[in-house]
Amino acid sequence: xxxxxxxxxxxxxxxxxxxxxxxxxxxxxxxxxxxxxxxxxxxxxxxxxxxxxxxxxxxxxxxxxxxxxxxxxxxxxxxxxxxxxxxxxxxxxxxxxxxxxxxxxxxxxxxxxxxxxxxxxxxxxxxxxxxxxxxxxxxxxxxxxxxxxxxxxxxxxxxxxxxxxxxxxxxxxxxxxxxxxxxxxxxxxxxxxxxxxxxxxxxxxxxxxxxxxxxxxxxxxxxxxxxxxxxxxxxxxxxxxxxxxxxxxxxxxxxxxxxxxxxxxxxxxxxxxxxxxxxxxxxxxxxxxxxxxxxxxxxxxxxxxxxxxxxxxxxxxxxxxxxxxxxxxxxxxxxxxxxxxxxxxxxxxxxxxxxxxxxxxxxxxxxxxxxxxxxxxxxxxxxxxxxxxxxxxxxxxxxxxxxxxxxxxxxxxxxxxxxxxxxxxxxxxxxxxxxxxxxxxxxxxxxxxxxxxxxxxxxxxxxxxxxxxxxxxxxxxxxxxxxxxxxxxxxxxxxxxxxxxxxxxxxxxxxxxxxxxxxxxxxxxxxxxxxxxxxxxxxxxxxxxxxxxxxxxxxxxxxxxxxxxxxxxxxxxxxxxxxxxxxxxxxxxxxxxxxxxxxxxxxxxxxxxxxxxxxxxxxxxxxxxxxxxxxxxxxxxxxxxxxxxx
Length: 646
Prior knowledge:
The chain is an alpha/beta fold. It has 21 helices and 18 strands.
């Protein structure tokens, strides 16, 4: 669908990449990877037609459409959520208006035998068929499914977009893009503003309901669950792997080892040739051999080794005074805005040295409780901060609050005090801002560089309680791993608000789930929590509907097992039987969707011919197939939800 041929991009003296060629085919799921600054976002912009390459071509097949979600975009605030999402169906609305206009014209005319009237009827029939083909009669259902999947509630649909944060407005843009059903979907860091549930919904959508996808993401689990092909930009060129991200990492290591061996052999060969030339340069009897060696040396193409960023982010939180045994104690904490209860009855105790996660859908109050702990907003109930607590706070919007006009150095110099001011260059160098990098203005920094700069500010003072609100947004995988190691080595207490499953895995020993105005404690790591949620989602749904016997710390661990081994065995047998039945149902639905998609593709081929284009029956059949496909996809979604619940 998209063909890239001999693409080159140059910014200044050194090219970003040269001679890049590859093809994006139907149903491709591609992860675009590479170190920061390698050109991943630039590549997506070129494919989307928003930036011109220095040379080379990008060819998009005539019938293919491209949708692009950038990392940052300017969003309009003049519509409601539903109205904004409906912009994806602007073609349907225009067609609907055209059909209404034609219908009115037909009603007004009485010259039934005239050529004009017959042309009008033909035009009306043609546009009506197009309307059915485009899903004009059921687009609202698809719109609502997509908004719900991305975390919106039905009561949000008619709220103005101006009432939502930037992250939620990015979700609206993502919803619009998905509803347009482009043939090629280009996504630049799509998970940065999504919670865990929405990420899992997006994974299913991209894996089963999209045509071709190319995405840039630093969420390792997301890449592994969505993509089946990995294109790496390195050394100004690309390497194309037909595997998932984790397999790519292994193959890349093997390739680099082979490159190293080949490079060492080549260097030895070059050294031997040069040595021969030097030894016999002035001996007439060896002149022909010397000239032959010189020509051979000129023909050698140097072997390049994949670039690996050997600069290490030496991240270490400074030691702080020992805190009290219980840094945070909440006793019946509640936060209410007018008639809206964010949460109530929150009882939790965080012990010194614990590392815990706050998880849940956006808007459920994770950041609100953090602000209560920080003392930034008033609340009801009791909240006690322990003895000798020094809080270090990293807000999810902190990187955006930096002054664009300051340099990197001045940004840190303005907040540094005491002896730290003598070590600013060392600190910046540890965070990959060494040399000329620290004279860059903040406005030219990438999202990852801004996040690193904001993290430096946190490290300038010793703290014994760290509260990190989405610390991994825009951080590359290497930096995330180093940050995770530093937090594990930190001897203080840590609260992490994050949707990044791989980052939380092995880091936290307790998960606090925010849902429906309650905060529930789950012992164990993030995957223990997710596994319980999948296994016990039916009981979770019951709790979400507000059963009166719900308590804040209600967990799966607290549910007593049924008495009697036989009853347990029979219950497990029944559950397994239902699960297998649900799996068969999902498989049948997938086959039905694949069959309908194949029929639609075949019919589109016939409709592209002159005979097909003039046959109204084909348009009618096409519209019916599209409606059948929408129904089949709905049945597949219901089957998947049923399977997830089991």
